[in-house]
Input
Amino acid sequence: MKRATSLFVSSLLMFVAASAHAQGGTVTFGGGATAGGRTAPPPAAPASPGVAPADGRPADDPAKEWEERDRKLDEGVVLGGGVGLLHTQHAQGGAPGQFRLAFTSEYFSAGFLCTTEFPCRDPRGGTGTLTKDSSDHIGGHLSLSIQVLKWLETYLSTSAVANSNDANRPALIQVLGDSVLGAKAHGQLGKIFHVGGAFDLLLVNGTGAVGLDGGGTSARFRGLATADLRGLEKKKIPLRFSVNATYVLDNTGEVVAATETARRAPVTRIERFGLNVNRVDHFDIGIGAELFAAKEKVRPFIEYVVQIPVNRQGYLCRTTNPSRDKCLANESVAPSSLTLGSRFFPWKGGFNVLAALDVGVTGVGTFIEEVRPTPPWMLYIGAGWAFDTRERPPVERVTTIDRPVASPVRRSRIKGFVHEDQKTEGVAGAIVTWDNRPDLTGMVTGLDGRFTTPELDAGPYSFTVKAEGYRPSTCTATLIGAAPPPPGPVGPAGPAAPPPAAGQSGPIDVLVDCPLVALPKVGNVVGKVLDVDAQSPVPNASIKLVDAAKKELSGTSSDQGAFRFELVSPGAAEVTVTADGYLTLTEKLDVAPRKDNPTQLLLKKRPKNPLVTVGKQEIVIKQQIQFALDSAAILPQSTGLLLEIADVLQQNPRIKRIEVQGHTDNTGSADHNKKLSEDRASSVVTWLVNHGVGAERLSPVGFGQTKPLVPNVTANNRAKNRRVQFIIKEQDSPSTPDAAPKKPAKKGKNPLTL
Output
C-alpha cells in the first residue's frame, strides 16, 4: 500500500513580459502576439512599401494583437500540464503573461486483473486462486501552466488516486502527491507547422512512508510536432494534428524494491496497477487530432498512444512469479489506448470543460511483469480556467459629424502650490479634496508640492488641504469663464496666468497658493510601570524624564501603573523610575514627533539579600557578571545583577569615580586576554551609562591574566580569575552632605499622573 503525502508547494514564477517585433527569415518562435508592458501600445507604424498584411491592417495593430491573445487564451492542458489535448501536447502555447489552472478527475470500475488465463492468488491465504475481481479506481489531477516567454511554457501538476480491489490485501491502495514539474519550448516553422520539445521531472512518493522516494524519481523527454491548418492563407481548415515522441526514464519500480525484498516475492499485479509501477523504461508515441466547431467553442478530439517497453534497467523477470504474469523476454507487448473526447468553451474568458474516454487497446488482457496493466476504459471529467495578466488597452471611438461646429468655450484649470507658511519648499504628498464639488476626484501633490485640476467651468471652487505634521487649510479660487481674469489677485489664490496669444487654444491656468501651518514638532511619552517578575502594575512610582532639549519632566504612576508626558522634545530621552521596595531603573528611548511613544518600565524588587555592597575601597559583588564564551557580550542572566549595581551607584553619589576592571584566566595568549578584558570592562561601563550612571564616574581598564586571585591550575580557580571588579578611586567622606542617598520623590498630586 502506498501511503504518502506530498506537500504541493506553489512557487511564484516571475513573468517575463518582453516586446517582440516581427522576425525576418523563415523560422519564427512562439507564434504569439507581440506585447509590451501593462501600458497602452504605441501607435502603429506605417507598413513598408510593398508589405501589407492580408487583412489590410498594420502588423502591429493592437486590435489584431489582442485577437491573437484572445484566441490563445482558449487552450486546454494535458493531465501532466502543458497546452494540449488529454495526453498529447501541442507544439504551441499561450501568449506571454497567460496562465492556466485545470482540475481533471478520472474514474473506472471493472474486473479485469484476475482472469482464467491470469488468475490471482487468494488473499485469504492457502493455495487457492481467483479468476474474478472487482476493481474501482478514482483520481484527480491539478495542473498549473504558465506561458513565461512567447516560446517557453512551464507547468506543475500533482495527482492523487485511490484503487480498491477485493482480490488484494489491503483492498485499498492510495497514491497521494505524485507530481510533475516541466517546461516546454516551442516555435513556429512556416504558416501551419510548429515544433518543440519538453522535459518533465516526475516526482514519486514512496510506499509506507511520507515524502518523496528519491530512487523513484523519473523523467520524460518529448519531441513535439503540430500542424495547425487554421493557419492556411487561402482556405483555413478547422483541424489541428499533433505528434509526440516521448522517452520515459521510468524508475517507479524502485518504490516497491524494499517491499519485494521483505516479501521475497514481487508485488502482485493488482498492487503494480494501483501503484502505477513500471519496471522498465518505455518509448511512447502519441498522435492526436482536434476539430474546431461552433466558432471554436466545441473541440472534439481523438488520440492514440502506444508505449513500447525498453529494458534499460536490465530487469530479470521471474518466469514463475506468483501472479503468473508473462515476461518481456518471452511475450512482446506494447500497451496502447484510444481516447475520444471533447473540450467545450461555453463563454469567453478562458473557461473550459472536458469530457473524455480512454479505451484500452493492447495490454488489457495480457499481463507482463515489467509493465503496468492497461485498464479497459477510463472516464475523465474536468474543468480549466485561463486568464491573461496583461491589461487590455482602451478602445478609442471617433465620431465624425458632418456639420459646422461652434468654436469651443475656453475652460480653465487651477494650478495649486502647497507649501509651509513662510517657506518656499513645497509639501509633497498633501491630500487636496474638493469642498463644493463632490463629483470630482481629490488630488495628491507631487514632490514639488504642486497639483493641477482638470479643465473646469466658470464658478467658485474651494479645497481642503491636509498633510501630516500640518494644520488643515482651505484654498479658494473663482473661475470667470472664457476670457482670463484681469491681472491681480483671485481670492487668496494670486494672479491668473496671462491670456493666451492670438489664435492660441487650450485651457486658461489660474494659480492658487495654499500655505500650511506646521504643527509643533513635539511628541508624547505614554507607558506603564510594571513589576518585572509579577507583571503587575506598580502604583505611585516616581518618574523623571529628561528630553533631548534637557527639559526635565516629572510625575508619578497611577493605580494602574500608567503615566503620560506631553510636549516632549523629539530625540533621545532618559527616563528614571524609583519606587519603594524596588531598584532604581533608568532607560533611554527615542521620542518621535507628533505621536504617542509607548514604553514599558520594568522594575525589579530590591533583594532581601543584596548581591552588591559598598566597601571602603571597592563595590563588592557576590556574583560575577556573565559573558558569552570568548566574547564581551553580556548574557541576559546578569541583567538583575547589573540593575542592582546601577542602583547602588545612583544611591551613593558620594562615590565620584570607579575603575571598572576586567580580568581573565590564562587560557589563550596574553595579548588576546588583555584585549578581551578591556572589551568586557567597556561593555559593563556602557551598560551602566545607558541605565543612568554618569559616564564621568566610570573608567574601564583591562588587566587580562596579569592579576589572578588564585593560581590557574583548576577549572574552579580559572573561573574565579575571570571577573569584573569595581574599585573606588575617588569618594567623599560619608559625613559629606552630598553623600546622603537620594530620597524618592515626595508623593502627591501631579498634572501628569493618570
